[in-house]
Amino acid sequence: MAVYQSGHIVSITSVSESFPHGQYLSYAVIEYDRNIACKTLVPELFYVAHRTITAVYTNTEPKKTDHSIDGPFVILELSLQDADAPMLFDENEEGRVPRNSPPPIAAGMPSAAPDSYAVCAENRLEITQCGKITACDGTILPPVRERIATCKSHNLIADDFMQFTFEDISYNLFVPAEYSEVKTYPMVLFIPDASVLGTDPLLALYQGNGALSFASARDQALHASFVLAPVFPSSYKLKSDDGLQKATKLIDKLIRLIDYISGQYTIDQKRIYATGQSFGCIALCALNICYPKRIAASILVAGQWDALEMSSLSNKELWFITSDGDARAYPSMNAIISEMEKRGASVNRNIWNAKDSSEKLSSYAKAAAEDSCNIHYTIFENNSVVPDKEEINPISNHVNTWPAAYAIDEIRDWLFTITL
């Protein structure tokens, strides 16, 4: 067993996890060459550069646990409030701003920093063992004074995606763990917001829970599926008033990409689903209008499109989600629903408080999904999507609708009940 020259440390791994507002570097795993006595550990025995240690304990496996047990792995949990915690930053001429607040660019919304662009952070930590540690065999492990950089990194769920390019776009693809060519599988297309337009495919994964929620162990156990998450260069940016003609370049590219992946894997063409937020929602409105027989069902989060054009989808299976504080998506979705009802759509309306418990929100969504209506319209009321310490305004309502929508398991589950 190899150890660092300066002590009993075998390896140090930094780990990021998916949270509703994005991917965060949330803990470190220090592997020792022997079992460590958990009861002797306190946070002050360690130092992590530019980070705050919130908990320290041992485990027999290199991962977090609610029940510590003596083992060779020391887990350092880190504060998500640290400036260096987010794995996504917005960069401009003045430097980097961590993406632990609303992104500065959102399609169809005022932009506070038009020259900003998103960049992925490096999953790396520097750690010092400041004090003596007691092993289970009674050995006292002396301090390791120098900073030791992590030698490995894991980005939970995100690392399960593969990255590719197709023509001039980059994309992420999650393949079910037990994929078999003798079976067919559904596929979920996720399109992120305009704040992550660019060429780095990881932007679509680190910016929130939209793609990663469908690839989670929970979702894959219930309905194993492919998850496709493309990112587009800024030349593809689309606004709701651009019209279908300008949208053609983007949506035709999406169809070609879907067809390409369908040629590589056994994708069930009757179970291709789509979801997107803001710019992604706008793109999917256009995609559904132009190719109504390709997508079985869609979750449309905080976006807008021409109401009359959207009314052509009155017989489709769609779930619209917005906040009543979103100055553009809310009135647009109201108009869309009104026009759809004129065309005979059966609409199930729901008004929820996003600050209700996850159990309550799950029960609301389950009841809505069981309704026989083909159009679902969920409104988060009274600025409830906005975190308590965040300023309430149209932008904060807009961007905080995204994580609120994808955090509700039963809304995601609804997609898989629909077949063309």
TrEMBL record:
Protein name: Esterase Ig-like N-terminal domain-containing protein
Pfam families, per database record: EstA_Ig_like (PF18435)
Stretches assigned to the Esterase Ig-like N-terminal domain: 12-141
Database matches in InterPro entries: AB_hydrolase_fold, EstA_Ig-like_N
Regions that span the bilayer: none
